[in-house]
Design goal:
With about 230 residues, the chain is mainly α. It is about 80% helix and about 0% strand. The chain is built from eleven helices and no strands. It starts with 5 loop residues before the first helix and ends with a helix.
């Protein structure tokens, strides 16, 4: 049985914070790539790379970037900010692996918009920023919502990058995924099964709600078209 539910609360805190960050960064990155005149393919590769890399490799690069011997790590340490073995480090790890999902889903939603409508807006003198906020984002709400929910689910289930950057400190950085690994390593299969069921239930409910909301939006959109 589970006596300590701190991995659940840590996972939720990390996932919510990471989703809020990737929500902003993913939309900005997708809008930037969509409107880029040059280097679009290269930018897309860079933004999508964490999606195809093993999470431990992503964690390795984060460890190099935020390590105490790196320029950024030393600058943060001098300001009293520490990333390694903290829940903030778990948030950074979750952001790194969930960002490509947010970015690519939003980009796909943006590309579904009629290009003639965007060109007409540009002809009328609208700036790219105004086009993004007045046309692209409102028309892409179902895709953005789906991207946000999927990013949350991915952040909540992150393991490889998290254990590399934030470690496995009970009550501090131990998420549900890490708790499953720890329970299996300790031979406590019943606890591992309980955490697995909790993670699967949350993931299923998340995807179910996303599908329900997306279907409702599609029905509303279809009704408007008719």
């Amino acid at each position: 049985m589970i006596n300590d539910f701190s991995p659940f609360w840590i996972s939720m805190k990390v996932a919510v914070c990471a989703t809020a960050i990737t929500f902003v960064l993913g939309i900005i990155a997708a809008g930037f790539v969509l409107s880029a005149k040059k280097g679009r393919v290269l930018l897309d590769c860079v933004f999508s790379l964490p999606m195809v890399l093993p999470p431990t490799v992503v964690g390795f690069f984060l460890l190099i970037i935020f390590g105490q011997n790196s320029p950024l790590g030393q600058a943060l340490a001098s300001a009293g900010i520490y990333v390694l073995f903290t829940w903030q480090g778990a948030v950074i790890a979750a952001c790194a692996v969930s960002f490509p999902i947010m970015y690519r889903t939003c980009l796909g939603a943006f590309r579904q918009i009629d290009i003639d409508m965007l060109n007409a807006a540009r002809t009328l003198g609208m700036s790219e920023k105004r086009i993004l906020f007045r046309i692209i984002l409102p028309l892409s709400r179902p895709g953005i919502a789906a991207a946000t929910i999927l990013s949350f689910a991915r952040a909540m289930g992150e393991f490889g990058a998290t254990i590399m950057l934030a470690g496995n400190i009970p009550g501090k950085t131990q998420t549900m995924s890490v708790a499953i690994y720890t329970a299996m390593q300790g031979g406590d299969r019943s606890k591992a099964y309980m955490w697995v069921l909790i993670v699967m239930a949350i993931s299923f409910i998340t995807i179910f709600l996303m599908n329900m909301w997306t279907d409702r939006q599609n029905m509303i959109g279809g009704g408007n078209i008719q």
